[in-house]
Amino acid sequence: MTNLARNLVHTAGVHPDRPALRLDDHVLDYRGLDERSARVAGWLTEQGVAPGDRVVVMLPNIPQFAVVYYGALRAGAVVVPMNPLLKTDEIAYGAGDCGARAVLTWAASAQHASAAAERLGIPCVDVTDEAFAALLGSVAAQAEPVERADDDPAVILYTSGTTGRPKGAVLTHANLGSNTRTVSRLLGLTTEDTVFGGLPFFHVFGQTCGLNAAVLNGACVTLLPRFDAAAALRILARDRVTLMEGVPTMFVALLAAAEAAGGAGVDTVRVAATGGSAMPVDVLHRFEAAFGCPVVEGYGLSETAPVVTLGSVDGVRKPGSIGTPVEGVEVRLIDDEGKDVAEGEVGEIAVLGPNVMSGYWNRPEADAAAFVDGWFRTGDLARRDEDGHYFIVDRKKDMIIRGGYNVYPREIEEVLYTHPAVAEAAVVGVPHELHGEEVTAVVTPRPDATVTAQELIEYVKARVAPYKYPRVVRLVDALPKGPTGKILKRELTGRT
Fold first, then answer.
1. pLDDT of residue 150
2. Strands 19-23, 26-29: parallel, antiparallel or unpaired by DSSP?
3. Backbone torsions φ then ψ of 403, nearest 5 degrees
């Protein structure tokens, strides 16, 4: 029996006065976080929320997220985190699909959240309102977390995917607990660490590697509710951040901000961790040089809680590699029939381990398609070198087939990132009458840089095989991104 909220109870007992969360000048210590989450648990129980009931949490990275997250877990409820930018129909779909009992949100999302909750006949509460804080003051705290089985759901994460409506990935207390412990150990987290909290907690990367890992170890998370590179740079310096976590586009933006400021001005980061999408090798090297710290790249998904592989902080690191499988997790590279590919060949990543979700919420047909003999098929393509290090090639769905030849977008993106005028790049396949698909690059130039589409075409053409280089380059002011900063390629192709 277990409950993820026990990590908070334990840390608050050992380090009550340590800062848990910092939002600019506001600091909440572990004693305060523990007490407030206990009152949220008591309040939810008073509202009739029973163990196993689902509670939607729609908040940015503010202290109240952690308070209600651990409060709901403490009450035995299942947390359903949602992006606070979602609109009424999107909220109603997710909350309705999982049969949520309540929606907890803040003022900026209240209009759409309330409309969705009303449609479903469930309460919607602004947990940042002063009235709610006063209400909690009169509620009996629930000190002891409700006991849950290891395989009981703790969190349901709705994955956007590339086709169909979102599916709820069910992560158990054991899934999240094991991955949190593993990540903490590999990144060497201690009570002395300050973690950059710019990755959204409603996303599994920020939730496990940021919030849960910090709470397990008594570290402090310094919060940035909405990512802004200049603000992030100030926070890194002001709060003497030791662990930087982000997706590649955050690193690109931080480098640009550092260049604009005449230097990073940050010397406390001991390690930076990235994931969510492939980190361009050129960006990795530039960040290490500018911030004076190693960058480790990992790989994972919502369905794997999330970390599957991670580069070594103090051992062998191979630029461009997502590292090796973390402790207790097994990885295979398989073909379309589910058989292992030959050594050195590209295959789809399949995962088996304590971090793999129990399944999709009420989606037995999706489970049947996602699992083969107990192994979770990720849809991501990779190769493994002779030392056991994995290298992401691309999303299976993103691979371009031009005239019968396979073109992996990441390879072309890596070349584009070495051009001095390129800030960001995404390579996609667009329908073509003769070749089936044509390689197309969408590029955001660096500020003050001058470059033409033809120059970039010629640049790549000189560095890759003739069938690989983009025949079309589009220059844009910005690339479409999701809530974590991941580039949304489907919006560049028009595919669903």
1. 97
2. antiparallel
3. 60, 30
